[in-house]
Structure prediction request, 363 residues.
Amino acid sequence: MRHLIALLACSLVMASASASDPAPKSSADKATDGKTATVKAILEGKPVAAKTDIKALAAAADTRTAAAAARPAPAAANSSAGEEQSEVELSVRIAERLAQLREQQAARAAAAAKARKAAEAKRRKEAEAAIAAASKPKNGTHWTYEGEYGPANWSNINSAWAKCNTGNRQSPIDLRDGIKVDLEHIAFDYRPSSFSEIDNGHTIQVTVGGGNFLTVGNMTYELQQFHFHRPSEERINGKGTEMVIHFVHRSYEGKLLVLAVLLERGKANPLIQTVWNNLPLEKHQAVSPSILLDPSEALPEKREYFTYMGSLTEPPCTEDVLWIVMKQTMQASPAQMALFSRLYPLNARPIQPSNGRMIKESH
Ligand SMILES: [Zn+2]
Prediction:
């Protein structure tokens, strides 16, 4: 019988060992009475320390065995039946309590598994949200030349502007170590044209009426618009100028060609004066004066140039743009320069890596 109690006690301890119930200090260690009280407490389902359970139950078993041994032999037979009866009762109660503890343990395990599952689901949901946010197309339109919306962040503003930071044929570049060759002659067929003018928030841009052509090699491009940057975006052997005009052309096939004319301080330029005279009063509102404008007034006499393959220098930074940078600079008066600097003191993209691109120049 003692073995039965010890076995049940072990099971009981194993079952209650993981219990997180608070365990007040038991008096079980003090004396056998105390141990008995603990056993009673265990059987009644009261919280006790796990380590005291086994001691108390083992002690209870010892006491019972010792009492049986001390009894005189004649009395043993009489008491034996009563003892068996109480042992059966005790066994039943231990088994009941054991079942109860196992039930509690199973409930705790189920609750812990549920909590783990919920935490895992939450983590997974958060990870999915982060991935979704990262791959969500961005469609911002506001960009600047400095600060948070500046050139280093252009590709983060709009997904369609990725080339601004990932492209390897971007403009502007520092024109140096060019290959000096006989370059194809550029034929300009510019004429006095109607035009509209806008302050688009990044520059002053002049859209010209049709009929202005540039031919280089066997390709003809039509002038679409021209605009200004301060300082010049392009550099020649590390040196820039105070301003530049970009003449943007498109071929019938949709190919882009940008012609850059560098501006230095000197005498007033008639084309620039016409543009300044007709500046719109409001940003983002185009004006269409009733006069004509002749884009050839901004072309240098000498037609030597640098050429390389690059990109638009503002979002979306489209590549596959043929660049022609005229070697001879043009002039604008200090007053003309000062007027633009009041509107746009800085609207130039920084120099981009040339990545070993070929630069050809007239010699
Ligand atoms: Zn430009």
Observations:
- The chain has eight helices and 14 strands.
- Helices lie at 2-17, 32-43, 50-70, 73-135, 154-157, 163-166, 270-277, 334-343.
